[in-house]
Amino acid sequence: MLTNLQARDVATVLHPYSNLATLPEQGTLILERGQGVFVHDVDGKPYIEGMAGLWCNSLGHGREELVEAAAEQMRRLPFAHLFTGKSHDPAIALAEKLKEIAPMEAAKVFFCSSGSEANDTQMKLVWYVNNALGRPRKKKIISRIKAYHGVTIASASLTGLPNNHIDFDLPLSSVRHAACPHHWRFAHEGESEAEFSARLAAELDAQIEAEGPETVAAFIAEPVMGAGGVIVPPEGYFAAIQPVLEKHEIMLIADEVICGFGRLGEWFGSSVLGMTPDTVSVAKALTSSYVPLGAVIIPDWIDDALKAQSAKIGVFGHGFTYSGHPVAAAVALKTLEIYEREDVFSHVRAIIPQFQRRLKALADHPIVGEARGIGLVGAVELVADKRTKRSFDARRAAAAKAVALAQDEGLIVRAIGEAVSICPPLVISEAEIDELFDRLARALDRAEEWAT
Ligand code: PLP
User: Fold this and answer.
1) Facing residues of 295 across strands?
2) Less Cβ around it within 10 Å: N or C end of the chain?
3) What positions belong to coiled-coil segments (predicted)?
4) Does ipTM exceed 0.95?
5) Residues 373, 55: contact at Cβ < 8 Å?
């Protein structure tokens, strides 16, 4: 039986990432407020936000400084843009800061409002720049199966998940998907992680040769695949992949939308996983998600090519009304200041061992096939048979059931296929990590009872 608010919700809101056929019966969890790593629903029940919202609310709820930064900017200059020779101080200061911390030699920063817009921008820049460089055939972009890069037309094409393509008439014809680097699921019998990485690199090389290297422009990768199920690359993966890209003059785009800003204990996941990107997409924890903001960070050679295009054809015809929105930029600057002032990433590095120990201990659970993770992000993959790694019948939606039981236990986590993912705010304490995993373990016990 739905409450009045739930009934109004399902009658009017078209919910993203939901089963639109069953949602009207199930109803929705309606949240009202949050403090720290906790959120409270409209009945006052508290939950540990074990997903930091959508992998984004890094500093938790109730950060007055961020509220103040937004309010102060709204009072002073609530809107200004960067089009046609205009600018404003928050965007300038934020671009300078992002340049300084970028995981590569950065020249400029392009602002947008989301990860999807950042990756769409990446794809447009790849095309535009290759035209500028006189390589009009070099346009294909290789992503990976199970990658998540967003939902706009280009970024949904880059995403490597069936639900983002089926009946949306995607992916675009210039996108290809390489193999998913999930060792536990896809390695051959007895194949080590390093051997698996070497094989994937050889397969990528063969794929590029088959496409024609002169037609492949870029490879895009999250340091750790997030919304595809938290897939940590196998040992030596990027070290094996990057020489293949270099050989064929294919640029590497790092999608740091989840990994950026401390998720793996450093500013960027690229530096933790040995990625040397040409360009970077960021969003989410850039503002601790208090307001929407995304960005693309580019190097000199792309900036030069863009300038050359303008010299030839005039205006650089790309930009959003909210590119570099002053309120979002002010909140981002304050967020980055807090990361540094409170040494948040040292805190993350200090709690990672405990988080990973509690996570990996779940591998012993009877319905968990793999417990995987790195930094402050992880997932448990549910299986019907641990020995053969056989999944539950998809129609039973075992992970969704476990997530519903976790919710009942006062924990928000997320089902991705057969995996249950966990990605708490960076500021979570040791006691809260223990409480999170105690609740998750109880939910898994109840899911096991339900399943057998
Ligand atoms: N890239 C990655 C790695 C993401 O995880 C996401 C969202 O989860 C996106 C891009 C898309 O970001 P947005 O939902 O802000 O468009």
Assistant:
1) 111, 282
2) N
3) none
4) yes
5) no
